[in-house]
Predict the structure.
Amino acid sequence: MWTSVTMQRLSRGGPRAFTLVEILVVLVIVAVLVALGVPGIKRSMDSVKQGVCASNLRQIGSGLMLYASDNEGVFPIDNDPAKASLYQGAFWSSAIWTYVGYKASSFQYPENDVQGNVGADKNLFHCPVTKRYPKGKFKEIAVPLSYNVANRLSYAMNNAPSRTLYGVASTPMRMGQIKSPANTALVLEMHENGGNQWAYHNAFGLIPHRGGSNVLFYDGHVSWMSYKEIPPDKDYSDANLSPFWSGN
């Protein structure tokens, strides 16, 4: 027969259940740890996406240089008027499609092209932030005065040098014309295929990486720049236009 003393000893030796207070304390601790960890995880993911975007631009830079070497040192026009009927086929990005390692036959609308559509995320012409961002919320990663987004593009060629040095936007740039290649933007993050200082600050500029963007320069290097660091809009004829835009 079990005595009361035996029952007490068995009770002490068995597993003890958690009290409600203890469970609540554990839940609070877990909640605090999650709250502390989420921002860190988000920062890490943002950093990874920024790195992927920078890698895209470096490969794009290599493609542009290869294209220029095959075309007497001339870069493609940001939007070739002679190919206007081809739409995306007129873009600079389409001109270097095979120069970045893709087969010409792989360029297909809308599954695999340079514009942000339903399935267009199989190539390096799409920033990992831009291509996934909800179109209705694009304003969150665009410059303050940006227009509504019609086409979800990630990268645009700086066409200010062609206007500044040649006076004609449809004239392609020569590599040797740029006096400050390490300080002049070649490709920027914009939701259009081409643009200049006005277009970036007033229409198509993107700041998808911590309030800034990656910039590919004419010498091939890529740097992250905050929005405030991107030189402001000035008139094309302004002799003091920053080398960042003009190439001078």
Summary: Residues 21-246 form one domain. The chain has one domain: 21-246. The two ends are 102 Å apart (CA to CA).
